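Q: Could you fold this chain for me?
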Amino acid sequence: MLVFSRAIGESGILVHPSMTWLITVLSIRSNDATFLITHAPPNAPGVLKAQKIDLSIDQMQKLNETTQLVLVDIREEKVRIGVNTTRDTQVHRLEVWQAIQRENGFLDDGDEGPAGSPVPA
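A: Sure. Below is the predicted structure, expressed as structure tokens.
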């Protein structure tokens, strides 16, 4: 399991060969958190699907047959998110993924990438 931390309004990105998910933290409470999971289905160009989920600590959300999201822990104002997936899926904090895309010439400095505008606080 790969684990990373995110605060409210911050995102992580999972890039699988057939689909990409954007996971954004919407709210954090003492034992649970709310996430917005956004993805573009591979068989529906131009369509963006979003789902809001609440997870308690140690609770799992299945994203597809091989990928699960787990709320591992809550520390102060951050959640620790665990991802169980296959080796062909990249898992990044969104700002790291955007830096990689800029370095490879896929994003310009002004581009927001898949996140669009920041989530309001």
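A (continued): The mean pLDDT is 88.
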